[in-house]
Amino acid sequence: MRQPFVAGNWKMFKTVEEARLLVIELAAGLANVPAVEKVLCPPFTALLAVHAMLVGTDLGVGAQNMHWEVSGAFTGEVSPSMLVELCKYVIIGHSERRSYFGETDETVNRKTRAALAHALTPIVCIGETLAEYEAGETAAVIKRQVRLGLAGLDLTSPVPLVIAYEPIWAIGTGRAATPADANAVIARFIRPALSSMYAAAVSQSVRVLYGGSVKASNAKEFFTQPDIDGALVGGASLKAPEFIPIVQAAVP
């Protein structure tokens, strides 16, 4: 049985002090939800503060991005060797990184390899655009992103990574995919793509999250789907009264 996984992506929100205040609320509200793996992904500037506050708790910390090189003349970048001191998880290939900052399947692959090499758990994001969705290209896009994003990885069960299916047309728009449709993409495209690359046990053990306008009012509908193992939550993770019920809804 795959353990539910819920991560909050704070994006470019929260100063260090604001992050501390939110963590206080979240740590208190999530203290008694042990059945779900819970991760907070603040901006880089707040990683140290959040990490320090969560030592000794069952709340994990993740970064929102990283470079694949260990060090070098890459102004403005952060390496995996820098992150391992502060977090266990890292979001890779988020649609906003792909859309605004030129992320590709190749860079996703390089970052995923680097994360695993440094014992970081990558949360690898995949998903189709509105144009691709309306053109009926979802299957082809998803299979390509899985194949190229995970190319060359030697994965065995239990798998040290998480996949987040985020239809780009549903991110921050208030327009979520239906739970049944999201589950179908995972069951019909993502897991079979994994099976074609690795053993069937790998396909069935990889946790696949849904992301895209997840909120307290619709989370349970997604989590009751057999192939959806949790959520990568954006805007709703910035408010404790919204994020806490989402995590609670993931309890099996």
What's the short story on this structure?
This protein has 252 residues and is of the alpha/beta class.
CATH fold-level topology: TIM Barrel
> Total helix count?
11
Q: Please, what is the CATH homologous superfamily?
A: Aldolase class I
- Secondary structure: number of strands: 8
Low-pLDDT segments: none
The structure class reads alpha/beta
Strand sequence of the main sheet, in spatial order? 7-6-5-4-3-2-1-8
Structural commentary:
The model has no long low-confidence stretch (mean pLDDT 95). The protein starts with a strand and ends with a helix. It has helices at residues 16-29, 44-54, 80-83, 95-101, 105-117, 130-134, 138-149, 179-197, 200-205, 219-223, 240-249; strands spanning 5-9, 37-41, 59-63, 89-92, 121-126, 162-165, 207-210, 230-233. The chain is of the alpha/beta class. An eight-stranded parallel sheet has the order 7-6-5-4-3-2-1-8. It has one domain (5-249): TIM Barrel (Alpha-Beta Barrel). Strand 2 (37-41), helix 2 and strand 3 (59-63) form a beta-alpha-beta unit.
